[in-house]
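Hi R.,

Here's the chain you asked about this morning:
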Amino acid sequence: MTTTSESTPSAPTSRLRRAPVERSHERVHFKDSLPFYLVNLSPILIVVTGISWQSVALLMITFWGRMFFITAGYHRYFSHKSFKLARVPQFLFAFGATSSAQKGPLWWAQHHRDHHRYSDTDLDVHSPQRGFWWSHVGWILVDSHAHTDFDKISDFAKYPELRWINKYDWVAPW
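And here is the predicted structure, written out as tokens:
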């Protein structure tokens, strides 16, 4: 650590810098984003179908189920390896989370691990420094983050069923 004066320490120089506060204007990858839009816009169908206790129950089950699989599956299991699962439950967690249309488990975990590695720098894929929309949704939909780097997620990329659901992430939302 370097100091600028005897009482004021400064951080060491680094190639990383804080993410710009300016909003991102990256191109949305519409083909890959279509399942995301359809899953999130499908409640509008209530205008056509009307409200029934079955539709409310289905909405609640799919909402809470998807929230569980994103949190417990993509975030806690695949990104942070907080617990262990056998291969069948591992695939079920991946399939359940993929039904939320937030891409595949390997893609999500690789990008979230990068988020922790480069938190609040210009390499942070979903930095809140880029705004609320970007940090919650934008980073999932843009071309610049469409690729999965399997070398960064080799602990899970070795499973062919996870590579399959990662490649065909549009299957589960339907």
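One quick note: The longest strand covers residues 2-3.

Cheers,
M.
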